[in-house]
């Protein structure tokens, strides 16, 4: 167990409201990632971080922002949630060399009504 | 365009039977290919990794093969168990970039093992 906790596990929110999802790791791994998983698509990268205050955009970053003020926490924010952001969100970390497997959290199921 | 295609989309087999899942990719240049297992309601977990020079890798009842010339991989599951019911995701890493932010994920094959 790589010690990744995502919170909340489930959330229902209304269109236009801000939402923040949290990913917490119990170790001090440098790389952290946010993905979304939707039917008919593979996992798609939203943003990733390679250190405190160091982040970069992924394939589907529009409408999302991230912050990493501490090594152990990586926050994903939807500034104004839309129905197209209804999805399951996964956080992942790299625990070793660059070719080591990603370790995923158990996801946050977000529904935007 | 870099793509990873998996087949079949879904598969139902009886407990104890074998099955093979397919992954075709067009990623170039290629670094490695990994198979993940994703149980319902959980995050994916790595099963195997294969680099360019490897053509077979086993992990218990799971055996992955890779043909880098034809850009095809397969995951063979032997003597299936009910706990094998899950989605199996093929993931390819291109040979560039210093992070894993460029991984290309297949859509997965959903396997159901029935008693």
Topology (SSEs and partners):
The complex is a heterodimer of chains A (113) and B (115).
Chain A: E1 4-7, E2 10-13, E3 19-25, E4 32-37, E5 44-51, E6 54-57, E7 64-70, E8 73-78, E9 87-94, E10 102-104, E11 108-112
Chain B: E1 4-7, E2 10-14, E3 19-25, E4 30-38, E5 45-51, E6 56-59, E7 62-67, E8 72-77, E9 86-94, E10 104-105, E11 109-114
Parallel strand pairs in B: 2-11
Antiparallel strand pairs in B: 1-3, 3-8, 4-5, 4-9, 6-7, 7-8, 9-10, 9-11
Give a description of the structure.
The complex is a heterodimer of chains A (113) and B (115). Chain A is mainly beta. Chain A has strands at 4-7, 10-13, 19-25, 32-37, 44-51, 54-57, 64-70, 73-78, 87-94, 102-104, 108-112. In chain A, the strands form 2 sheets. In chain A, strands 2, 4, 5, 6, 9, 10 and 11 form a 7-stranded mixed β-sheet that branches. In chain A, strands 1-3-8-7 form a 4-stranded antiparallel β-sheet, with no helix packed on it. In chain A, 36% of the residues are buried. The mean pLDDT of chain A is 94. In chain B, strands 2, 4, 5, 9, 10 and 11 form a 6-stranded mixed β-sheet that branches. A 5-stranded antiparallel β-sheet of chain B has the order 1-3-8-7-6, with no helix packed on it. Chain B has no helices and 11 strands. By secondary structure, chain B is mainly beta. The radius of gyration of chain B is 14 Å and the shape is globular. The mean pLDDT of chain B is 93. Classes of the chains: A mainly beta (113), B mainly beta (115). Chains A and B meet through strand 5, strand 9 and strand 10 of A and strand 4, strand 5 and strand 10 of B.
Brief digest:
The complex is a heterodimer of chains A (113) and B (115). Chain A has 113 residues and is an all-beta fold.
Category from helices, strands and their pairing of chain A:
mainly beta
Number of strands of chain B: 11
Amino- and carboxy-terminal Cα gap of chain A: 34 Å
The low-confidence runs of chain A, each spanning 5 or more residues with pLDDT under 50, are: none
Strand fraction of chain A equals over 45%
Helical amount among residues of chain B, as a percent range? under 10%
Could you spell the SSE succession of chain B in H and E letters? Answer: EEEEEEEEEEE
